[in-house]
Amino acid sequence: MKHFQRVTDQPLEQYRYERKFLVERMDDRQIRTLIMMHPAMFVMPYPPRWVNNIYLDTPQLDNYTENVSGAVDRCKVRLRWYHQLFEESSPAVLEFKIKHGLVGKKLQYQVDPFKLDTQFNRKYMERYFEVSDLPFEVKQKLKGQMPVLVNRYQRWYFATRDGRFRVTVDSDMVYYHVGLLENAFRYRHEERLLKVVELKYQQADDLLASRIAGALPFTVYKNSKYVYGMDCVYW
């Protein structure tokens, strides 16, 4: 079992910023060109790939409510893997994405591959975590959490040469409703027109980040993909 980080509190300076921008009426190639022409001289450190997520929440949707209300301390819980969606996954990562005000951190744990198909439901997820090699305190945190949303998007990666600033571009986003008992994943929302750009950096670089963000001709976006997806497939 690989522990990326332990579930313990971290000093605030270890949190990072994520500035999000919403891009409309611009295709992927135009966005990539603008980023590559940025004065910060971004490069592409990795090839693009498909990102898949299963979001977990309580039956009362406490995580959703905290994020909608803008609570100072809020959390999102998700299972993330890459490439194929409905075939057996590559090794997945369980993430607790914790926000404190405008900064955040991730607590991550590698878990075994699984298969997303019509047998997937709340009971499947509970059994999957029960037999996993997760620490006891993590399993306790997962009690009362159930799968509520699946989403998928293509992500492009950019970074400054010193690695202090990273930009991701997410497009071709699809959101799937998750039922309690069975799932054919037919109830979904496809978002082909909107793209989400994120600028990520450490708190110490906030001043310079303002200059970098100012050179990006995009609209600031405050909502998360989780909130947006829930609004699309549930309400």
Quick overview:
This protein has 6 helices and 10 strands, in the order βαβαβββααββββαβα.
**Biggest β-sheet, characterized?**
8 strands, antiparallel, barrel
| Largest beta sheet: strand ordering | 1-5-4-3-2-6-7-9
CATH class: Alpha Beta
Mean pLDDT equals: 90
Structural class by SSE content: alpha+beta
The amount of helix comes to 10-25%
The total of helices stands at 6
Could you say what the CATH architecture is? Alpha-Beta Barrel
CATH homologous superfamily (4th level) name = VTC, catalytic tunnel domain
Helices and strands, with pairings:
Elements: E1 16-23, H1 28-36, E2 49-57, H2 62-69, E3 73-82, E4 92-100, E5 103-111, H3 122-130, H4 136-142, E6 146-159, E7 166-177, E8 188-191, E9 195-202, H5 206-214, E10 219-220, H6 225-234
Antiparallel strand pairs: 1-5, 1-9, 1-10, 2-3, 2-6, 3-4, 4-5, 6-7, 7-8, 7-9
Please tell me about this protein's structure.
With 235 residues, this protein is of the alpha+beta class. The protein has a single domain, classed as Alpha-Beta Barrel (mRNA Triphosphatase Cet1, Chain A), CATH 3.20.100.30. Helix content is 22%, strand content 36%. It contains 6 helices and 10 strands; from the N terminus they run E-H-E-H-E-E-E-H-H-E-E-E-E-H-E-H. The protein has helices at residues 28-36, 62-69, 122-130, 136-142, 206-214, 225-234, and strands spanning 16-23, 49-57, 73-82, 92-100, 103-111, 146-159, 166-177, 188-191, 195-202, 219-220. It has an 8-stranded antiparallel β-barrel, surrounded by 5 helices. The longest helix has 10 residues, at 225-234. 27% of the residues are buried.
